[in-house]
Amino acid sequence: LCKLMEKIINNGLSCHIEHNQILNPLQAGFRKKHNTTDVLVNLESDIHNAFLNKEILTTISFNLEKAFDTTWRYLPLKKLHDWNIGGNIYNFIKNVLSIRTFQTRIQGILSSTRPLQNGIPQGSPMSVTLFIMAINDILDQVRTPVKALLFADDLLLFMSRQKINQQYKATCSQP
Q1: CB 157 within 8 A of CB 58
Q2: Where is the Reverse transcriptase domain (predicted)?
């Protein structure tokens, strides 16, 4: 019954987020009408432009390891608050994120139950929505001339310049 409720709330939350264009348009993971192709076309366009302008394009790719497990679990709640989403939806999501425990079994012996301190629950119908809410602001930290694309937990940073030393100076001089 809880999974069904999570699906219903997740559908409403996802629709609200998309309808109000809350997420960064450069975040393409886990969103309707946004996919890997969008990221690749965007990158290909910048590569093509750099080639035409005889520039060097440098990319750095990051995969955020254990992204769901290491996400601060209260960050989606902060986002809901920032976006003025409260009431019963906020309280339900707070309960989904707060009441998490785990046990381990080693050689057939089950440990005592322990509370999870971090992470977004995997396997929940709300997991991906909560994660992209949490990671959304990472793109706001990228400054020109660096560009960024985000697909779920994969971040691509890139920039183009006429000469490598211009690129190095432009990147390293940023605060």
Answers
A1: no
A2: 1-175
